[in-house]
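Please check this today:
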Amino acid sequence: MLYSVTAHNTQGIDGTVQLSNGKQVTTSHPLNNQSGFNPEVMIALAWSTCFKATLDTILKEKGLNHLSYVDVTVDLHKEPEMPGYYFAVKGQAAIDNMSLDAANALVQEAHARCPVSKLIGAAHAVSLKTVPYKLS
């Protein structure tokens, strides 16, 4: 094992989560304006950060000096035919100065290697798309 952390939550969605590394994270419900992070934010942060790091590693391994970015959108939906909710997670990745086909090959390689992609990739409400690089 290279790293491990445990989150200890006694307060639910509104409160503070204690981490085994000594840090703490303030959490809040996604439908209020209180400060803190909600699960949607944390999923978007986790996948976009991990995926971008993996994509950068692949570009470096191949000796490619291209800019890239990863956008992750997490939408909260109400289950249509049962109680509860679900997340729809949409990832988009782009690499500059590269054809869409070539960029897509690298994005798919990153998706196969990224630890968060491995965790969520088989979920029915997760999608990943390679898009043309645009400056923001």
Observations:
- The two ends are 38 Å apart (CA to CA).
- The helical segments are 39-61, 100-113, 115-120.
- The first strand starts at residue 7 and ends at 8.
- The beta strands are 7-8, 15-19, 24-27, 68-78, 85-95, 126-130.
